[in-house]
Amino acid sequence: MPVALITGGSLGLGRALATELARRGWSVVIDGRRGRLLDDLVAGLSPRSVTALAGDVADPAHRASLAEAVQRHGRLDLLVNNASSLGPSPLPHLRDYPADLLAEVFEIDVLAPLALIRLLHPMLVASSGTIVNISSDAGVEAYQGWGGYGSAKAALDQASAVLAVEEPALHVYAFDPGDMRTAMHQRAFPGEDISDRPDPESVVPPLLTLVEARLASGRYRASDLPAGGEPEITDPVSVEASR
Q: What does the alpha-carbon distance between residue 20 and residue 23 come to, in Å, rounded to a whole number?
C-alpha cells in the first residue's frame, strides 16, 4: 500500500488530495493547525487509511512527529508540501511588510518544506519517491501586494529545481494549481466574491496525473496537465516556455 504525507491537509487542496488518495487505497499522513477540521476529515474516511496530526509545520518538534508517523508505515512514496502562509491580510506592499511576518512566510513556505525533505530523504529514496512542492503563479508573475508570498514561492520553485538536479533518484515537482476557491485565497481578496474560482477538488486529477505518470522533474501548472489518462506533456521545459 503506497504512503503519502500531505501538509496543510485540514482545508483546501490538501484535504481534497488526502480524501482522493485514501479513496484509492493509499495510507495518508496529514497535518494542519486546525485539529477539529482534521478530526472531521478522519471521521469521514477509514481511520486505518488516514493519520492526522495537529500542529504547525514550522515547528521542528511537530515535523519530527510527522516523520515518526510516516516511519510507522515503513515507507514513503509521496511527500506533498502543501502547507503555506499567505502573510498579512490585506496584502501589504513590500516596503511596508513587517520583517517578522515576512520571515514567518519564508519559514512556513520555504524552510519547513526543505526541513521535511531532509528528515524524510532516506525513506523517499528507498521508494524512488516523489516530492510535490505546491507553488503559485505569484512565484513567477509580479502582482501588487503579493511580494511576500510570491517571493517565498519563487524561492521554493528554485529550491525544487535544484533538488531535482541533486536528487536524480527522486521525482521533484513544483506544482502550480492556479486560482482556487479556498480560505487562503479569500484572505488575499477580503470582502470580494471569489465564487467564480475553481474548487480545490478540480485540481486533484491533474496533480495525480503528474504523480502517477512520473513525468520528468520540473515545474508544472495544473492547466497544462490532463485530468486523467496519458499525459501529452513529457518535457517540463515546454511547460515553462508556454508562459
A: 5
Q: What CATH number does domain 3-241 carry, 2.70.150.10, 3.40.50.720, 3.40.50.980, 3.40.50.1100? A: 3.40.50.720
* Angle in degrees, 0-180, between the axes of helices 112-126 and 147-166, rounded to the nearest 10: 30
Cα separation, 105 vs 114, whole angstroms: 14
Half-sphere exposure of 238 (CA within 13 A, CB side): 8
- DSSP, res 175: E
3-class state of residue 134 by DSSP:
strand
Measured distance CA(85)–CA(103) in Å, rounded:
11
Which position among 97, 143, 149, 173 bears the catalytic label?
149
| Residue 173 falls in the annotated catalytic set | no
| 148/110 Cα distance (integer angstroms) | 12
CA 88, 177, 128: angle at the middle one, nearest 5?
A: 115
pLDDT band at residue 189, thresholds of 50, 70 and 90? Answer: confident
| Residue 61: exposure state from Cβ atoms within 10 A (0-12, 13-18, ≥19) | exposed
CA distances from 1 to 9, 55, 139, 186 (A): 20, 26, 34, 36
Average pLDDT, the chain: 90
User: Going by DSSP bridges, is the β-strand pair 78-81/3-6 parallel, antiparallel, or unpaired?
Assistant: parallel
Three cell numbers, residue 162: 535544484
The model carries a pTM of 0.90
pLDDT at 141 over 70: yes
Name, in order, each residue with C-beta under 8 angstroms of 61's C-beta and a sequence gap of 6 or more: 55
